[in-house]
C-alpha cells in the first residue's frame, strides 16, 4: 500500500515524463519526506494531497531541484536530473509555481513574463539592446498572458493585481519558460470561487500539452480535475490511485478524519481551511 | 624555533584567541538571532576597557567587584541601547543596518573623546595578579595573562552551558536556526532579543575590561578588534558559539605565527585563512545545515 | 525638480568656495593644517599653542605684518590630505602652510606646497623623504627626521657595547625609517641588528614578538611605537621580564606623554630626542614659564616644535619685511634656511635640505619625567639622502 | 539577501502603447533629459567657478563615478558590499605604479586600472558570492581589509606613505598630445566625460536584458532560478563591472591627488560611499550622483567652524547623528524625498 504503483498510471498514459524513485529528505533527525516514488505524464493532472507537514512542498522542492534529496533519484525527459541544479532543470522544461506568491511586483505583467521567457535565451552580453526591444520575449509574454486570461492587464504593474490575478500570473510566468511539466504548489490558495473556476479551466486545458503536478488543499477542486491522487502523511505515501478509489480508501479517511468518516471531499474541505500551508520548507522564503 | 619557544608561542596564540572569542561570541549571537549586522560591536569592547579605566579608582583593589560592576553597567547599557536604537533595525534591510551602526561608531568615538579625551591611559593590574612566573629559560609570563585566559575559558564554558542547557539557551539556539519557529513557540521575541543583545554587549565589554590592564585604553581600540571579529564569525559560522571558539583559536594561531615567520605579510594571514574556509565551507565551519 | 536640485547644489559649491583675491598688503595668511580630531588631536593643539605663543611674543606680527590664521583638521587622513590642503591653498589662499603630525599627510602637503609655490613649515612629521628625495627650498622642518633619534640611539647603544640588537616596530614608514637610523648608528659602534620584527599598524598584540626576542636573546632592543602602542609595548616588555636582562631603547616618542599610562614599567628606560622637558637652560625655562602662563598647561616637545616653526618663519619674513611677492621669494627662503633658531631645545641651524641640525639628548625615565642625562650626539644632521639642494 | 522592499523603483505610468512596455531599466522619470542638462551645466561651470571650486566639482564628480559603480551592485543587484574601496584603491595604485617615474599614456593606464581592479573583483566575487546577506557584507569588508594590509604593510605599494604620481598621464594621438591631465581644464573635462560615460553605460546596462535579469535577482532570486536563470554568473558579472568602474574612479582620484595612499582602501572609504548612495537614494542612478554631492557638502558643513563653532572639531559626532536621523527619516534618500514632493505636487493616477 505504502508503495505508490506507478504502473497503473503509465499504463493509462504513455511513458512518464517525470519520474521520481524512493525520494527522501531528512532535516536533522526528522524525515520530511521518506521513500516517495511518483510519476508525471503528459495529459495527466497528478494531485498530491495531505495534512499540514505531510512533506508536500518538500517533495515539490526536490522535484524542482531547489532541495537536494538525501535519497532517491529524479528522472526527467529521459535524463537523470537528480544532480542537476534548479536552473538547469528549469531550462530543460521543468517549471514550477510557488505556494507563496513570488512575482516581481514593481514590473508590468508583461515584463514579469518576458523576464521569465528570457531565461530560455538570455544573451546577457548584448547590453546595448533595450530589454523592451526583445520582440520574441514580448510575444511569448503576451501569448502566455492571454492563455492565463490576463491579456487585458499586460500593462499593469504586477503589485497592483488582485490575489487571484497574482496566482494566475504565477502560472503565466511558468508557461513563459515553455515547460513540459508543471509543478504547481497550491495554485488555488486563497482564491475566490469564481477565480478558482477559471484556474481549474486553465489547468484542464494545459494538461493536454503538459504533465502537471498539483499540490492542493481544496479537495473539491482536486477531485474535480485530478486524474490521479497521491495522499501523503508524515512524509510517506499512504495511497496513490484514481480519485474514485481514493475517496473510499479507509486508510486515507482515517488519516484525515479518524474513524466514522462520511465522505472525505466535503469533510476534508471543511476541515482544512483554504490556503492552510504546510509548515515544512517554505519555498520562496530565502534562508538568512 | 626550538620546542620551548614553540610552546610559548602556542600559549600566546591561545591567549589571544580566547580574548577574541569573548568579543566575537557576542557578535555571532546578535547576528545569528536578530539577523542584525552590528558594526558598532567593537565600540562595546572599547566601552568595557574605558569602564575598567573609569571604575578602577572607585573600586581600587576590588578587582572582581570592578568586573562585576562593569559587566552589569554594560549589560544595562546594552539593554537600553537595544530598546532605544537596535529594536528599530530588525525591520530595516542590512544596508541600513550597516549605515546606522557605522554612524553609531562615529558617535561613540566622539563621545569617548569628549568624555575622556584622546590620551592613552593605563589600567592597574590587581596586586594579587601583578606577579609573573618564569617560563622555561626564556622569559617571564605574567600571572595576569594566565588569569585572562582562564577567565575567558570560564566564560566560554558558562556560555556553552547557558546555550545548551537552559531554556533561554534553547530559545537562543532555536532563534539562531529558525526565527519563525521561535515566534511559533509563543516566545516573547522582543524580550529574548533584548536579553541576547544585552548579553552580547556585556560579553564584549567584559573582554574589554579583561584586556584593559594588558592593552591600556586608547582611541580607536574598538575598530581594530571589530574586523578581526567579523573574520572569526565568518569562519566559525553565524550563530554558532562553538564555531566562534574554534575560529578564534585558529585566528589566534595564524596571527601569532604569521608575525614570527612572515612579519611583512602577517596582516594578510587571517584573511587568507578566511578565504580558504570560504572555498571549503562557505557557510562557516560550524553552521548547522538548515 | 531634480535638475534644479543638481544645479542648486553645484551653485552652492561654487559660491561656498569662491577663492578670495590674493593680497600683498594686509595680514599674512597662515594655514594651520593639523589634527584637531582623533588620536593626534592633543599634538595638534600643542603645536598650535606653541606657534601662536611665539607670534604673540612678537606682538602678533611677523615681518611687520599682522597674522591671520586659517585652520583645517587634517584628520591624520592621507587619502584626504590633498583635498584638505587645497582648502587652505586654493580656497583661503594662504601664504604659509604649517603642518602636520602624520607623515603621509605631510608628504601630500609638501607636494601641494611645491606645486603651488607656497611656503611650508613642518612642525612634527618626521618622514625622511620630506627633507630628502622630495626636499625643496620652500619647505622646511622645525622638528626632526625619523632617522635622527634612531641614529643617535644607535650611537649610544654602540657606546654601551651592544653587539647584537633587535628592532620592533609597526609596519609603517615612520617605524622603518627610525629603525634604519638605529641600525646605521649601531654599526658605527661596531654592533649590528640581527633581526627586525614588525607587526601591522596599529596592532598591539606583542606577545609573539616578545617571545621571539626572548628566544633570540639580543644585547638590546630598539622599538618605535607611539600612543597606545608605545604604552602597551613598554608594559608588555616589562611584564615579560625582558627589561631585566635586555635593555629596551627607543626614540623619545616611546615615553613622551605616555609615562602616566606606562607607570613603573618604563622606569629607567633610555630614549633619545631633540628635547627634554627638564632641560635646565634659561631659554627653556623662560619658554616653559611663558607657555604655562598662556595656556595653563605644561608644554611638551610638540609645543616646542610649533614654537620654533614660528621662529623660522619669522626669520624669513623679517629678511623681506613681510613682502611675499615672487621677486623676494629667494631672499625669503634663503633667510629661512640660514637662520639660527634660538629654540628652547637649544640653538640649531637648518641643513641645506631644511631639516634641523640639532643636538640629540639622551633621556632617562624617572617617575613621570624624561630626565636629561647627556648629549647623545652633538649637532646631528640628517643625511638628506637624494636631496638635490 | 533581505534587499527586497527597499529598492522598489518608482512605478512607471502606463501611457506606453502595447509593445512599448513599461521598462524597469529606465527607472528615472524624464529619461535622459535631466542628466543631459546636468552635464551641460557642469560643462559650462568652469567659466564661472574659481579654481578651488572647480577642484571641488572634480572631486565630487570622481566620487560620483565611484558611487555609481557601487549603485550597480547595491541598488540594481541588491548586493550590499562593504569593501568597495578596495577596487578604488587598486585602480589608483595600478595607475600610479603603471605610470612610474616617467609617466605613461592613458591608452595604457586606463586598461591597466580597469583590468587589475576587475581581476581582483573577480577573485573576491568568486569567493564572496558563495555567501549571502550578512555574510556577504562581512566577507567583502574582510577582503578589502586584506588589500589594505597588502598596500600598507608591504613594499608592494610604497608602504604606509603611499606613492607619488610624478608625471600626470597624457593621451597622444599620432604624436600630438590631445589630452594632458596635468592641465586643469583638460582634467576637468576628462572627469566630466568619464562621469557622463559611466552614467550612460550603467543606465544602458540596466535597460538591457542583463539589467532586467539583475533587477529580477534583486527582487526575487529564488524566482529567477525557478525560471531557469543561473543567477551566480549574473551577480559575478555585476560585481566585476562594478569593481572595474570603481578602479576607473580610483585612477582619476590618483591623478587628482597626484599620488595614492593605503588609507584610500580603508573600510571608512567603503562606508562613506555606501552613505553617498543611500543619501541620494538607492535604486536610482541620479541618487548616486546627488548622494556624492550631498555627502561632500554635508561633511564640509559638519567641519566648518563658521557653522558649528567649537563643535566643528567633533564633526564626526554631528555627522554620525545626521546620518542616523537621515537614514531613519528618509530611507529612500533625497530622490525619495523629491518623488514624495512631486507626488504631493501632482498626484499621478
Structure notes:
The complex is a heterotetramer of chains A (about 290), B (about 290), C (about 400) and D (about 350). Chain A is about 35% helix and about 20% strand. Chain A has helices at about 5-10, 55-65, 85-90, 110-120, 135-145, 165-175, 195-205, 220-225, 245, 250-255, 265-270, and strands at about 20-25, 30-40, 45-50, 70-75, 80, 95, 180-185, 210-215, 230-235, 235-240. In chain A, strands 6-7-8-3-9-10 form a six-stranded mixed sheet, sandwiched between helices. Chain B is mainly alpha-helical. Chain B has one domain. Chain B has helices spanning about 5-35, 40-60, 65-85, 95-115, 145-165, 165-175, 180-185, 190-215, 220-235, 240-260, 265-280; strands at about 130-135, 140. In chain B, helix 9 (about 220-235) runs parallel beside helix 11. The termini of chain B are far apart. Chain D is mainly α and about 350 residues long. Chain D has a single domain (about 35-345), classed as ABC transporter involved in vitamin B12 uptake, BtuC (Orthogonal Bundle), CATH 1.10.3470. Chain D has helices at about 35-45, 50-75, 85-100, 105-130, 135-155, 185-205, 210-225, 230-255, 265-280, 285-305, 305-310, 315-330, 335-345; strands spanning about 165, 170-175, 175-180, 260. Chain D has a two-stranded antiparallel ribbon. Classes of the chains: A alpha/beta (about 290), B mainly alpha (about 290), C alpha/beta (about 400), D mainly alpha (about 350).
